[in-house]
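To: structure subgroup
Subject: Chain for Friday's discussion

All,

I'm putting the inputs and outputs inline so they're searchable in the archive.
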Amino acid sequence: MKKLLASAALIGMATTSAMAQDEPLKIGAAVYGLQAEFMQIWSEALEEHPAVVDGMVDLTIFDGRYDALVQQEQFETMATQGFDAAIFVPIDIEAGAEAVRIANEAGIPVVGSNTQVNSDLLTSYVGSDDVQSGYMEAKIVLDAISCAGNVVIIEGPIGQSAQIQRLEGNQKALAECPDVTVLEQQTANWSRAEAQTLMENWLTAHPDSIDGVIGQNDEMALGAIEAIKAAGLDVNDFAIAGIDGVTDALNAVKAGEMSSILQDARAQAQGALDVAIAAAMDGYEPMSDIWQTYSDMGWEGGAAASYNVPWTPVTADNVDDLLAQRQ
């Protein structure tokens, strides 16, 4: 716990104050991997948090390289170096529990974000409902093919909470369409290249049979589109949906090639950092403006067990505004 000084500065929100301190809080963010755009956006948003910009927080972002053991070692580093708090975006819902245990034994509060971990030692969680997004994206595809025909599902890394929960949502929507057959279902590990290879194989195995593609993230949906184009087929003959709202997906939505659901990386990352600071410092009020954007989340002193960031379907009406935010 850092020694607090008497002065406070209003930043962002009119009701927000940040208490000055002798030295910055050391906060680590252990993310599952930084190869794809979504986690890059998430990490950049964390670095743009007012508490980081003004030096109140000394932030370290750890690249987990899609490996649960690497993430565990990073938590051991944070424990050894005496970090004040940690944010965790785990690659594996079960294996990540050991990393949280290591932090807990070292007295480091851990706030989850974006993907979940099965641990009752987590201080809080700031993310979005992946079951809901899985249902939403599958429903888009199924409605487009009038609840009849054949689809393929491209899954995220097996064992990650987003893969598990989005699949649950996919299956919930499919249960409403008994005349739809799932021809193929396999992981592409959030990778555009892996998804392209899968889709190339599936187009060969099921010529003229695939009506829809349910990609559990945008990168994989985009990989499917590349495979369809490479095969000389018309993308408009397929109903394709993904999740995240990455830049290429926004452009593909604008071109009429796919559908997407925006996952607000900025709100997840900056919200998680506000909660992590509150866990490490008495009397902290949030400095990010995301609590105004999503006022229904409710700050609750940073002490709530979870904070749910809403999804935003990408449409023709909002896609230009979303693209403009990436400039």
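Points worth raising on Friday:
The first helix runs from residue 37 to 47.
The CA atoms of residues 215 and 221 lie 5 Å apart.

D.
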